[in-house]
Design goal:
alpha/beta
């Protein structure tokens, strides 16, 4: 199974999501490792999920961390990469050998000029910039700014992803990929995959 674009699944909390998405050919599975997060996954649960999946990169998701704390984190979570909102030492984080994703909220003023001012200094250390938003769709104005940014930075789109427009969006804006969110199980072993499946099935290649 393969998909037409790079796909990350964020906030995975259960084996049902992990196995389904891995089987569909996604590239990354993300797990919230911040104990204050609603979707926090403890080390035992992380192991019980990840030992049943293969062929995907395992990404830890935190809001902020420094290299010393990251060294401790990876002792409990054998991750391949890290998604983070901010750090004072991106170079030090990169030195750990992990793939780095910088998470950005669209609530910022993200014109290309402002994006360059804020993120050019960390661009050498980051594999992807993941942009999230509360917006349900990509307006023409947002699309204009996203196009400018994506032409200069490796952008993963984390919002406004809809079944009937995703292929057009990917063909018109040079994103490196997209990010979708996992969800809670109805009960252990039972999961409603409708939202994820609708997007992933559109992206399937024959």
């Amino acid at each position: 199974m393969s998909l037409q674009t790079f796909v990350k699944i964020s906030a995975v909390t259960n084996l049902s999501d992990a196995r389904y998405c891995a089987g569909m050919g996604v590239d990354m599975l993300g797990f919230s490792l911040d104990p204050s997060a609603e979707t926090f996954v403890d080390p035992i649960t992380f192991q019980s999920i990840t030992e049943w999946v293969a062929g995907v990169q395992l990404i830890g998701e935190v809001e902020s961390i420094e290299p010393d704390a990251l060294q401790e984190l990876v002792k409990n979570y054998p991750i391949d990469g890290l998604q983070i909102g901010n750090s004072s030492d991106w170079k030090g984080l990169q030195a750990t050998g992990l793939t780095l994703l910088c998470k950005i909220s669209w609530t910022e003023d993200l014109s290309l000029q402002n994006f360059q001012t804020k993120y050019d200094s960390i661009k050498p250390y980051v594999s992807y910039f993941l942009i999230e938003s509360e917006e349900d769709s990509i307006t023409p104005e947002i699309g204009y700014h996203l196009t400018q940014i994506a032409e200069h930075y490796p952008i993963i789109l984390g919002f406004g992803i809809q079944q009937n427009s995703i292929l057009q969006t990917l063909s018109s804006i040079p994103f490196k990929g997209i990010a979708l969110k996992g969800g809670q199980e109805i009960r252990p072993g039972y999961k409603d995959f409708d939202d994820l499946a609708e997007i992933l099935e559109v992206l399937e290649t024959e």
